Amino acid sequence: MSPMWEVENLRKYFPVEKSFIEKLFSRKTEYVKAVDDVNFSVEEGEVLTLAGESGCGKTTTGMLLVRLIEPTSGKMVFEGKNICPLKGEELRQLRRKIQIIFQDPYASLNPRMKVGKTVGHPLQVHGLAKGSERKSKVLEALREVGLAPPEKFVDLLPHQLSGGQRQRIAIARAIITRPTFIVADEPVSMIDVSIRTTLIDLMLDLRKSLGITYLFITHDLAVAKYISNRIAIMYLGKIVELSEKTELFSNPLHPYTRALLSAIPVPNPDRKRKIIRLKGEVPSAIQIPSGCRFHPRCEYATERCKIEEPSFIDINGHLVACHQEVDSHN
Ligand SMILES: Nc1ncnc2c1ncn2[C@@H]1O[C@H](COP(=O)(O)OP(=O)(O)OP(=O)(O)O)[C@@H](O)[C@H]1O
Ligand code: SF4
Ligand SMILES: [Mg+2]
After folding, report:
1. What pLDDT does residue 327 have?
2. Is there an atom of ligand 1 within 6 Å of 31 CB?
């Protein structure tokens, strides 16, 4: 069976705004290479997580998949169809099937719109139900996200809800068109720690009951470990490692992944573990380092790493882009 998504050579370059003075000195347009040749697939029913430090291109990738922004180049094949050229009615049909949940439940809900209207809005946009049918679908969606009794919530405004309840509303709005795929962009990072697991469990339950596939985005590898089937580690606009989660945690191959994993706190402080400190800051996405873009921060970097970009090697489904690994398997 072919995967639900096949993403090939996906790029998103944002032109950098220049001041008048800067324009006088240089006519050349510079670009933020937010997503720079990304390739991955998503199997139906799985949770694939994109993880990595701030600014590595996670959100941009998610927004490209749901067609909120247009790619600079590349291909995004969803259920066998390249969605990049879709317009008009075809794009509208696609939007019913793919949804996004944002990080900030305070910013993503209209403060003046009552819960019932917010959750039912996609049904109105897609002409899927009106009147009493829409009302009953809204109540059903609220029930599905654990807001009970749902009648109690329909006339409330966002400010009358807690952060967790608001994110449940955002999830209800996302599932009401019965999507098969959801991008969940840091959906619990602004939620109280005490209820994060409950919300993640809700999303996993919906995956089973409604048959939803997720692209989950997080910078928190502990969350990634809990929710994912597979994890892709991004660095400066590129995926550097992608693997099934248990394999990734027990056998990380890329030096960047190893550094990220070493920074996760361990529950038992007696269990000594070597912390790998990354050198310096993440470089600018405007001036991406030559060769392996991780080389200025990598303790194993060689002269070759500064010149030659590593290609991916597939070690029994565990993908990694690092010269060391490629060499050791050749
Ligand atoms: N609309 C835009 N215009 C210009 N640059 C942008 C735009 N959106 C994102 N970027 C830049 O693209 C890069 C990737 O940003 P993105 O938001 O995708 O990263 P992220 O991995 O989601 O980060 P975070 O963990 O902080 O949410 C960053 O350098 C960011 O500044
Ligand atoms: S290719 Fe070189 S610089 Fe890049 S991660 Fe591997 S060893 Fe480090
Ligand atoms: Mg982001």
Report:
1. 77
2. no
